[in-house]
Amino acid sequence: MSKDTTTAAQSVGDALENLSTESRKFAPSAEFAANAVVTASAYAEAAADRPAFWGKQASELLTWSKPFTKTLDWTNPPFATWFEDGEINAAYNALDRHVEAGNGDRVAIYFEGEPGDTRSYTYAQLTEEVKKAANAFEALGLAKGDRVAVYLPMIPEAVITLLACARIGAIHSVVFGGFSAEALRSRIDDAQAKLVVTADGTFRRGKPSSLKPAVDEALSVPGHSVENVVVVKRNGEDVNWVQGRDNWWDDTVGTASTEHTAVGHAAEHPLFILYTSGTTGKPKGILHTTGGYLTQGAYTHKAVFDLKPETDVYWCTADVGWVTGHSYVTYAPLINGATQIIYEGTPDSPHQGRFWEIVEKYKVSILYTAPTAIRTFMKWGEDIPAKYDLSSIRVLGSVGEPINPEAWMWYRRVIGSNKAPIVDTWWQTETGAIMIAPLPGVTETKPGSAQSPMPGIAVDVVDELGVPVPDGHGGYLVIREPWPSMLRGIWGDNERYKDTYWSRFDGMYFAGDGAKKDEDGDVWLLGRVDDVMNVSGHRLSTTEIESALVSHPSVAEAAVVGAADETTGQAVVAFVILRDSAVEDADIVTTLRNHVGHEIGPIAKPKTILVVPELPKTRSGKIMRRLLKDIAEGREAGDSSTLADNTVMNQIAASLKA
Ligand code: WTA
């Protein structure tokens, strides 16, 4: 739970107040509803017997090498197993079986590179590439259960690498390319990765940007676990080369055999680890296993996006470095036999119409992106998307943070031509797949609300004591029943898993989000209630950034808050007390921003750093972030009566005016 419950309660309260009563509703068209892949009966069916409902999805959507006879085992909470005696191969399900079913010529991936280069892979071609990578990784000594760190840009090789790992039962751990060498090192170390797959670099806004040097730096300390590095040649920049350790992708994967038989792995065999920020400094290695994860991913992908794999063109804009790029790029769409777009670049390069150009070019019918992108497009103006033919779009998805009603309305009107249903999807790295979202052919959608738990998912909003709040009230979001794609733990730290998620409310999973139930019982997400910030849909920990700041010799103390930001949702604002030696340093703010970039990664750099003489603390020494948030958001600071020294706020105000 949050270290400062006052902050938590306050932020839920603030969010509730800011939430204007929203009365607009949009029903699906009769035509959409009549052709919907999943209908309202799914809710009743799932409610009648939750494990049986998921068992049915697991059998229907996946091909098992050995069928399961058990569904859920929850005899040892909070450790669940699903489909435990079944065996399955994730890569076979994503690839080979589509080829065997005669769909080998269907395009699996259309790739748009940032410099404008393109490639496409049919299911047959992608299957061959994955088989080659699986053979190459095995030839490098990789075996079932070994961990592989993946530090790649958003290129097809990322998906190929993940599926090749899954094929041989190796456990991938993707580290987002925007993280620093230091962050990469700690994740490699925690997972004891044996292999690293990376690239020379990528492109960012027309310029080459490197990745390999960060890998070299991460591996510069003796005693690490890595035996081999495989390097994709992407931007052609010169790279440092360590003989005997480094291998070009083209020389290893490129020359490997295209014959590789996929064997089944136990349903509970680990599929991947993905590190995410928590309330303490050390990132958590969220562990996902195979059968349940694939089941819920495939089901939600089909149900929430109304997927018709023969005709839809699906584009999820997430990077593979985040969970959305795992569940809704690498696994679910391919399991479901969809045709999808992968784009390496940013929305503004080479021009601000890039996304819409891609939608027009490939006739994208399902678009899944983040509110921060939508708000950016709004800022750029609607005449930009108006230049393109977006008439192929029939479903629009949103993920990563609460979507404000005005952004939702803009998305619907400007991108969805006032007809495409919007599905606002709430979930987390930990939940593995979508938990709360409308069903586009069923739900009357409301701008800004994720609305209903998926069929087979038991979500609730409770008060401080864990008692469900009545409709019309706010509280904490919890999950009452185990779900197939739930995390199975934190890598190497069962205690932390129990403490973080299962100790706040008895027998319930605590998500860390505030939420409200409206008068109809629909769920509205209100943002984090703990020390986790959400910047452009990326999770960042206040504590982690504070630790990075105080690790600099010029900083005596630091406090970080997430301040409301029009475009990025939240922005990182840091308050620092400098050591005497640094007080005269005119460049200190730049130095500290770069230091955070080096310690964690560019995405964590504070937008604003305010140098202050003191920090507001309670008598027990807790920093009152609520007061700092008031300052960061330009408000009069609230009640400071519990401060140990109540002149501190005046001192801070005076120093900021100076
Ligand atoms: C937030 C991303 C409101 C939430 C899939 C959650 C959302 C955290 C939504 C998880 C949404 C995600 N509405 N908030 N539709 N989707 N969040 O692990 O605070 O990167 O706890 O997973 O993002 O972020 P994560």
Give a quick summary of the entry.
33% of the residues lie in helices and 23% in strands. The protein has 658 residues and is α/β, with parallel strands linked by helices.
- Strand sequence of the main sheet, in spatial order? 12-11-8-6-7-14-15-23
Q: How far from one another are the termini?
A: 37 Å
Rg computed from alpha carbons, rounded to a whole number of angstroms: 24 Å
Bound ligands, each once: 5'-O-[(S)-ethoxy(hydroxy)phosphoryl]adenosine
Q: What structural class results from the helix and strand content?
A: alpha/beta
What is the number of strand segments?
30
Q: Overall mean pLDDT score? A: 94
**Runs with pLDDT <50, length 5+?**
1-9
Into which percentage range does the β-strand content fall? 15-25%
Number of helices: 21
Helix fraction, binned, reads: 25-40%
Largest sheet: 8 strands, mixed
**Cα shape:** globular
Describe the fold and architecture.
This protein is of the alpha/beta class. The chain has 21 helices and 30 strands. The strands form 8 sheets. An 8-stranded mixed beta sheet has the order 12-11-8-6-7-14-15-23, sandwiched between helices. It has a 7-stranded mixed beta sheet with strand order 5-4-17-16-18-19-20, with helices on both faces. A hairpin with a 7-residue loop joins β14 (270-276) and β15. Mean pLDDT is 94; it is low at 1-9. The protein binds 5'-O-[(S)-ethoxy(hydroxy)phosphoryl]adenosine (WTA). The site of 5'-O-[(S)-ethoxy(hydroxy)phosphoryl]adenosine has 22 residues, from α12, β20, β24 and β25. 5'-O-[(S)-ethoxy(hydroxy)phosphoryl]adenosine binds at residues 276, 322-324, 399-402, 424-429, 450, 511-513, 525, 528, 534, 539.
